[in-house]
What does this fold into?
Amino acid sequence: MLLDIVRINGTVRHYGLEGGFWAVRGDDSTTYDPLGGLPSLFRQDGLRVFLEAKVRSDMSGIHMAGPIVEIIAIRRLEP
It folds into this structure.
């Protein structure tokens, strides 16, 4: 199965839907929903990050915020 890889800069956001979850709102205006959740070190609303991830179009979730992604790499961006 072919999976798309995305490499984006974005902002970590906490969403209150379905009990609350963390996601990355990309500078491309897409909200990326990390499979298994965002690592705890990055659960900081407003944190700027670089995200490299596989888009898991073969999966669906309850958040319905945007595509589910499997994180390959994530790092903080300098302000």
About this structure: The longest strand covers residues 4-15. The two ends are 37 Å apart (CA to CA). The domain at 4-76 is CATH 2.40.50.500 (OB fold (Dihydrolipoamide Acetyltransferase, E2P)).
